[in-house]
Write a structure and sequence with these properties.
Elements: H1 2-18, H2 28-37, H3 47-57, H4 64-90, H5 95-107, H6 109-116, H7 121-141, H8 144-158, H9 168-182, H10 188-201, H11 207-212, H12 226-233, H13 251-287, H14 289-310, H15 317-324, H16 328-353, H17 359-388, H18 396-405, E1 413-416, H19 419-430, E2 439-442, H20 449-458, H21 472-480, E3 487-489, E4 499-504, E5 507-512, H22 519-531, H23 551-569, H24 573-586, H25 589-605, H26 609-622, H27 628-642, H28 645-668
Parallel strand pairs: 1-2, 1-3
Antiparallel strand pairs: 3-5, 4-5
Length: 669
C-alpha cells in the first residue's frame, strides 16, 4: 500500500529530525544503560526491547541515547503507516480520511514525545497495531496464516510489555465473533499451530537469564534461576500491573485516576477530536459491528479499567508524566477512529448534497470540507513541533547526572535513590563514562545478594558486611567509608549514631562526628559547587514544561533547600535566604512549597512582615498538597511580626480546624 509506506517514511524523517541525543528522564536512563551494558532493566525486564537496544547501541554514529531512540522513532513511524492502512481499509479506500487520521496521531504531543525519546512505548504501540492489522487480514481473507502471525506477534508483545494483556478481551471477542461468522472449527491442527506460534513469540525471554548471568551493573533481580525470573517478569518488586506499591491504591484515588483519563482525552484531543472519534465509533457500529464492539472493549480495558487497576499517584508533573505514557494505546486507537469519523462526515455531506447540487459543486464542497478539517491536525502539529524545538541538542538530564558526579571526591561511593537522579546518574557514569572512579550504587537494592554480585564484579574494593536489610546501609557505610573513599547520597540515609549527613552541593556526605568540617569551610565548598551547576531551566524546559523532565528542577531545588537549612543552623540568614530563593527559581513541584515556606521564615526573621505573608500565601497556592501548616505560619506572622493578635487568633483557630479535618480524612482512608 503506497500511501501507508509514504506516511511511514515521512513520519520517520520527521521523528529523526527531532530525535533526542541526550537522555530523557523517567525510565530512559535505566533502559538505555541496561541495553548498553547488556544487562536487565527494571521489572518486567523488557527482554525484547533490551536485546534490540543492545544491538542498536553498537551503531557507530551519534550518541547511545540517540541510537536507542531508534526503537521509538522507527516503531512509531510504522504505527503511523498501519493507522493509515487500517483507516484506508475500514473506510473502503478513503485516502483523505487515512491521511487525516495518521497526521492527527503524529501531531499529538504524547505520541511525538515517545517517537523522539528512548522508551518502551513505541514498540508496544507497534505490537497493538500489528495485531489488529493481522486480524483484519485474517477476517478478510479467512487465511489462517494471518491468524498464526497474530498469535506470534501477541506472544512477542508479551516479551516486551505486559499491558498487552489488557487487550485480550478485545482480541478474544473479535476472534470469537469472526469464528462464528466463518463457521470455523477449532481443529487440533489449528490449535497446535496457534499455540506454537504464540510460544515462538515468547523466545526473547531467553535473553533474561543469559544477560543476568553476566552480572552487568544494571541487572535487576539477577534472574539466573526460576525464582528470580518469576520475580522479574511479574514485577514483584512493584506489584503486578501496579505503578508503584503503596501509592494511589484507595478506591477514591483509583477513581481520580479514571477521571484523569477523561481529562487527558479532552485536553489532548479537544472536543473536535472527541467528536471525530465518537463519529468513527458510530460509523463502525452501523457497518462493522464486530469492529465496533472490539474497539469499545479495547478502549475500556486499556483505558479506564487499566488506570483504575494500576493505581497511579497523581501528585506532581512527574507523576502525571508517568501516568500519561499509558494513554498511548488509547491514542493510537483514537487516531484510527478519528479518520473513520472524518470519512463518515464526508459520506453524510455527500449524501445530503449529491441530489441538490451539480457534481462540480459537490466535489468543491467536499474538498473545502476536507481542507477545513485538516486545519485541526496541522495546527496541532505546529504547536507540537514548537514544543520540541531544541530537543536534539538538549542536555537537561545529562547535565543533572554530570552535576551530581562532579560533586564527589575521587574514588567515591555514591548511594543513589529516586528514579530521576538515580537513572540519569547511572547513564552518565556507565554509558558516557564520566567519573569512572566513582561507584554509582542503587541504595535500595544494596542489601540484595544478587545486586552485590554485580557490584563485586565492577568494584572489587567494596566490602559487603553481614547485616540485616534494615541495618544494611548503615553497616555498609561504616565498613566502606575511609578518608580516601568517601560516601555520598542524594538523600539522607540511615548512618547510625555519631554519623552525620553534611550537605555537599547536590549531595550529602556521610561523615563521622570527629571529622565534621567547620561551618564556614562546608558552606564555601557547597556554595562553590552550586555556583558551577547547570541551570535546568535554560534548556528545553525554558520553552515548554515537559512533565517528566520537569522533575529535574526538583532535584536542584532540594539541593538548594538543604544548603539553606544548614546555613540557618549556622545563623547565616542572608545566605540562607539566597539559597531558598534559588530553590524557588527552579520551581520544582515537590520543592517549591517548602522553598516558599522557608523564604517566608527568613523574611519573618528579618521582620519583613508583608514579604513573609506573601511568601506563605504563595506557598499555599503552589504546594502540591494543601497543608494546615501554611495557616499556622500566617498566624505566627500576624502575632509576632504584624502585632495583630485578633487576626493571629482567628488564623490559629482556622489552623486547628483544618488540622482536625485532615486527621479525620487520614483515618477514613
Amino acid at each position: 500500500m503506497t500511501g501507508s509506506f509514504v506516511m511511514s517514511v515521512v513520519s520517520l524523517v520527521l521523528f529523526l529530525t527531532f530525535q533526542a541525543q541526550g537522555i530523557y528522564t523517567g525510565d530512559s536512563g535505566d533502559l538505555v544503560t541496561a541495553a548498553y551494558v547488556g544487562g536487565v532493566p527494571h521489572p518486567p525486564g523488557y527482554p525484547l526491547y533490551t536485546l534490540l537496544g543492545f544491538i542498536s547501541a553498537q551503531l557507530p554514529f551519534f550518541t547511545v541515547s540517540w541510537r536507542l531512540g531508534l526503537l521509538s522513532s522507527i516503531p512509531h513511524a510504522l504505527v503511523v503507516g498501519l493507522v493509515f492502512a487500517l483507516i484506508y481499509l475500514l473506510t473502503k479506500k478513503n485516502t483523505w480520511a487515512a491521511v487525516f487520521g495518521a497526521l492527527l496521531l503524529v501531531s499529538n504531543y504524547l505520541f511525538f514525545l515517545y517517537s523522539t525519546t528512548p522508551e518502551v512505548f513505541a514498540l508496544f504501540d507497534l505490537f497493538i497495531m500489528a495485531n489488529w492489522f493481522l486480524l483484519y487480514q485474517w477476517q478478510e481473507t479467512r487465511n489462517m496464516r494471518f491468524f498464526y502471525y497474530a498469535c506470534f506477534v501477541f506472544g512477542l508483545s508479551l516479551t516486551h510489555h505486559h499491558v498487552m494483556i489488557f487487550f485480550v478481551p478485545a482480541f478474544f471477542y473479535f476472534i470469537w465473533q469472526n469464528g462464528r461468522t466463518f463457521k470455523m472449527k477449532l481443529t487440533k491442527q489449528r490449535f497446535t499451530l496457534s499455540l506454537l506460534s504464540f510460544i515462538g513469540g515468547l523466545l526473547p525471554y531467553a535473553y533474561v537469564p543469559v544477560a543476568a548471568v553476566r552480572d552487568a551493573i544494571i541487572n535487576w533481580d539477577r534472574a539466573v534461576d526460576l525464582s528470580g525470573f518469576v520475580r522479574l517478569v511479574t514485577r514483584a518488586d512493584y506489584g503486578t500491573f501496579v505503578s508503584g506499591g503503596g501509592y494511589g491504591e484507595s478506591l477514591l484515588e483509583r477513581w481520580y485516576a479514571v477521571v484523569a483519563y477523561g481529562n487527558f482525552l479532552l485536553t489532548d484531543w479537544s472536543w473536535i477530536g472527541v467528536v471525530l472519534v465518537t463519529t468513527g465509533l458510530w460509523a463502525l457500529y452501523k457497518t462493522q459491528r464486530v469492529w465496533f464492539w472490539s474497539w469499545v472493549i479495547a478502549l475500556l480495558s486499556v483505558g479506564p479499567l487499566f488506570f483504575f487497576y494500576a493505581s497511579f499517584p497523581l501528585a506532581s508533573r512527574f507523576t502525571l508524566g508517568t501516568y500519561e505514557r499509558f494513554l498511548l494505546p488509547s491514542y493510537v486507537l483514537m487516531g484510527v477512529l478519528s479518520g473513520i469519523g472524518l470519512a463518515e462526515i464526508l459520506r453524510l455531506i455527500s449524501m445530503v448534497l449529491a441530489p441538490r447540487i451539480t457534481r462540480e459543486k459537490h466535489k468543491a464542497v467536499i474538498v473545502l470540507t476536507v481542507l477545513t478539517f485538516f486545519i485541526y491536525p496541522l495546527t496541532l502539529s505546529g504547536i507540537t513541533l514548537w514544543r520540541f524545538v531544541g530537543l536534539p541538542q538538549d542536555r537537561t538530564a545529562d547535565n543533572l547526572g554530570r552535576d551530581i558526579l562532579e560533586n564527589t571526591a575521587p574514588g567515591a561511593i555514591l548511594l543513589m535513590s529516586q528514579d530521576t537522579a538515580l537513572f540519569t546518574t547511572q547513564y552518565v557514569r556507565y554509558v558516557l563514562g564520566v567519573r569512572p572512579d566513582t561507584a554509582v550504587i542503587h541504595a535500595a537494592r544494596l542489601p540484595i545478594t544478587g545486586y552485590q554480585a554485580s557490584l563485586i564484579k565492577y568494584f572489587p574494593r567494596l566490602t559487603f558486611p553481614d547485616a540485616t536489610p534494615a541495618t544494611y546501609v548503615e553497616a555498609f557505610i561504616k565498613a566502606n567509608r575511609t578518608p580516601s573513599q568517601r560516601i555520598y547520597s542524594n538523600v539522607i540515609l540511615p548512618a547510625g549514631e555519631g554519623w552525620y549527613w553534611v550537605p555537599r552541593g547536590m549531595l550529602y556526605e556521610a561523615i563521622p562526628f570527629a571529622e565534621l568540617p567547620d561551618d564556614e569551610v562546608m558552606y564555601q565548598e557547597a556554595k562553590a559547587h552550586l555556583a558551577s551547576l547547570h541551570d535546568p531551566r535554560s534548556g528545553i524546559l525554558k520553552r515548554y514544561e515537559h512533565l517528566m523532565l520537569s522533575d529535574v528542577s526538583d532535584v536542584y531545588g532540594h539541593a538548594a533547600i538543604a544548603l539553606g537549612k544548614t546555613l540557618v543552623r549556622a545563623e547565616r540568614w542572608e545566605d540562607a535566604k539566597s539559597e531558598f530563593l534559588r530553590a524557588v527559581s527552579y520551581a520544582g513541584d515537590t520543592s517549591i512549597g517548602e522553598a516558599l515556606e522557608l523564604v517566608g521564615l527568613t523574611y519573618l526573621y528579618f521582620k519583613d512582615c508583608d514579604a513573609a505573608l506573601r511568601a506563605f500565601d504563595e506557598a499555599k497556592t503552589r504546594s502540591i498538597v494543601a497543608s494546615p501548616r501554611h495557616v499556622m505560619l500566617e498566624s505566627v506572622t500576624y502575632g509576632e511580626c504584624v502585632g495583630d493578635e485578633a487576626r493571629a487568633a482567628e488564623l490559629f483557630s482556622e489552623y486547628e480546624r483544618l488540622r482536625s479535618a485532615s486527621e479525620q480524612s487520614l483515618e477514613a482512608l
